[in-house]
């Protein structure tokens, strides 16, 4: 395995506490879609999160379309995706906060100048950019270091597809084996692991009663090690680098 040169961070609930905000907006639109198709089922934000965490809205809607045999023409589908982006960005600009402890870690990593750093997300590029701008992380992640499965690829996709990680590696000129990813979800972990990237699982954004369960989920998906707080990251990174 080559020496670690590059750190690839998921965004939602890994760098920033965005998932609750995002799934509130997603639930509103998902329920509108279900109502328009004459389906009585309705979702809350938490219910949608439990079923689809780690997927972007396009992937989520594709899953719902399959589950309920929805008839959504491509133009209507794209319109809902655009509306979801706008709704989530509005919530992000109003109330987004960083994950606890991440600011100090990013500052420390930037000071060492030892690694390239990038964001690799399923979410739309506009949403990721709004997130890093809101919490001041744009100084670490300029626009050319933000990779979105929804908008950076010729064919939009979503994690657990490894395509966005492979794309990020290609653009950055890195081999997967010299990268370390940080992910909080099963789908995100699978995406990174399937791309051949060593993955640290982060469970700190989950409620305390969910953390043990998520530890098992992320470990099963291939994350190793697992961290509960960002203050663990640099020591875990040194452990990953210990063979060198």
Q: Can you offer a commentary on this structure?
A:
- This protein has 244 residues and is α/β, with parallel strands linked by helices.
- The protein has two domains: 6-17 and 97-241, HAD superfamily/HAD-like (Rossmann fold, 3-Layer(aba) Sandwich); 19-95, DNA polymerase, domain 1 (Orthogonal Bundle).
- 50% of the residues lie in helices and 10% in strands.
- The chain has a six-stranded parallel sheet with strand order 3-2-1-4-5-6, with helices on both faces.
- Helix 8 runs parallel beside helix 9 (208-221).
- The termini are close together.
Brief synopsis:
Helix content is 50%, strand content 10%. By secondary structure, the protein is an alpha/beta fold.
Secondary structure layout plus pairing:
Elements: E1 6-9, H1 19-36, H2 45-52, H3 57-68, H4 74-95, H5 102-112, E2 116-121, H6 125-134, E3 146-148, H7 163-172, E4 179-183, H8 186-194, E5 198-202, H9 208-221, E6 226-227, H10 233-241
Parallel strand pairs: 1-2, 1-4, 2-3, 4-5, 5-6
Helix pairs in contact: 1-2, 1-4, 4-6, 8-9
Pfam family, one: Hydrolase
Protein name: Haloacid dehalogenase-like hydrolase
Keywords: Hydrolase
Number of domains: 2
Mean pLDDT: 94
Rounded to an integer in angstroms, the radius of gyration calculated over CA atoms is 17 Å
Write out the CATH superfamily name of the largest domain: HAD superfamily/HAD-like
Kindly, what is the distance between the CA atoms of the first and last residues, rounded to a whole number of angstroms? 10 Å
Q: Which short descriptors sum up this protein?
A:
Rossmann fold, 10 helices, single chain, phosphatase activity, 6-stranded parallel sheet, globular, Haloacid dehalogenase-like hydrolase, 6 strands, 2 domains, 244 residues, CbbY-like, PGP-like_dom2, DNA polymerase, domain 1, alpha/beta
């Amino acid at each position: 395995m080559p020496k670690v040169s590059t750190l690839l961070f998921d965004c939602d609930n890994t760098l920033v506490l965005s998932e609750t905000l995002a799934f509130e907006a997603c639930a509103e639109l998902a329920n509108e879609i279900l109502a328009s198709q004459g389906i009585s089922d309705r979702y809350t934000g938490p219910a949608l999160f439990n079923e689809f965490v780690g997927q972007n809205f396009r992937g989520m809607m594709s899953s719902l379309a399959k589950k309920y045999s929805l008839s959504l023409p491509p133009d209507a589908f794209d319109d809902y995706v655009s509306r979801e982006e706008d709704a989530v960005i509005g919530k992000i600009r109003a109330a987004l906060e960083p994950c606890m402890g991440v600011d100090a870690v990013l500052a420390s990593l930037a000071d060492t100048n030892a690694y390239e750093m990038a964001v690799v997300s399923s979410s739309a590029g506009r949403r990721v950019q709004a997130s890093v701008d809101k919490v001041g992380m744009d100084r670490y992640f300029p626009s050319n270091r933000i990779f979105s499965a929804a908008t950076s690829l010729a064919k939009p996709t979503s994690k657990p597809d490894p395509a966005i990680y492979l794309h990020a590696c290609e653009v950055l000129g890195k081999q997967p084996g010299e990268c370390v990813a940080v992910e909080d979800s099963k789908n995100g972990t699978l995406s990174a692991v399937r791309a051949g990237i060593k993955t640290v699982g982060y469970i700190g954004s989950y409620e305390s009663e969910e953390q043990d369960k998520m530890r098992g989920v992320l470990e099963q998906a291939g994350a190793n090690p697992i961290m509960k707080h960002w203050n663990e990251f640099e020591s875990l990174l040194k452990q990953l680098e210990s063979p060198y």
